[in-house]
Amino acid sequence: MFYATSAGVLALATAQFFTGVSANLKTCTNNNTLSCHSSSKAPTCCYNYPGGALLQTQFWDTDPSTGPSDSWTIHGLWPDNCDGTYESSCDSSRAYTNITEILKEQGRTSLLSYMDQYWVDIDGDNESFWAHEWGKHGTCINTIDPSCYTNYSAQEEVGDFFQKVVDLFKSLDTYKALSAAGITPSSSKTYTLSAIEAALSKVHDGSQAYLGCDNGSLNQVWYFFNVRGNAIDGQYDASAPLTKSSCPSSGIKYAPKSN
């Protein structure tokens, strides 16, 4: 399956946490149904379906490198059908290509500045990258459909989506988690899959993350979640990956960024 911060004590993530801004989404009261765990299989504004698993995905680009040398970068937030399959490009009428303009109109300049540093395209075209992630994955998250909003404003869900992805990314500092376990970028050292998985499980409440490798070099991490409520202000529960990591069991390279 293919889906195109300083020294100190590493804070561990909890199994259940809330992140993001308070959106104008319809209230989900007394909603205890965890996505991917209902037999009714009916989407509502409080139940993510069919994309019930949500993946916060990250890149480690080294040649050319992207983002700071001491941080991974954002890939996106992807809905998965709870079985390793996924839908894509679900609403062409909302496949906006002017993400920067939308965020500026919503007054989200701080968010935009952060994205320009940590959500970066390997070819330097951030705008197209953001539009791709929104159009392919964001439009498939049913709980942020415009019909799920109270007093909906045009493109409101776009800003909420990008803010949510950034907030999740900030709570999952892959670089620090690996460094705390002695796993640092090196042109000569190699690491085992089990050691990397163990290190990242500490920021994912004991759940493993999917690890992606290219020619034996670590370059992707996907953190899987199930959600109670909507995707913006719902409760995210860490879950096991739905697909097997593509890295070898040993000899994994973690190359330094070229800058």
TrEMBL record:
Enzyme class of the recorded protein, top EC level: lyase
Keyword Nuclease: yes
InterPro entries membership: Ribonuclease_T2_eukaryotic, RNase_T2-like, RNase_T2-like_sf, RNase_T2_His_AS_1, RNase_T2_His_AS_2
GO terms for biological process, alphabetical: RNA catabolic process
Keywords associated with the record: Disulfide bond, Endonuclease, Glycoprotein, Hydrolase, Lyase, Nuclease, Signal
Pfam hit, one: Ribonuclease_T2
PANTHER family in the cross-refs: RIBONUCLEASE T2
Family to which the UniProt record says this protein belongs: Belongs to the RNase T2 family.
Protein's recorded name: ribonuclease T2
Lineage of source species: Eukaryota, Fungi, Dikarya, Ascomycota, Pezizomycotina
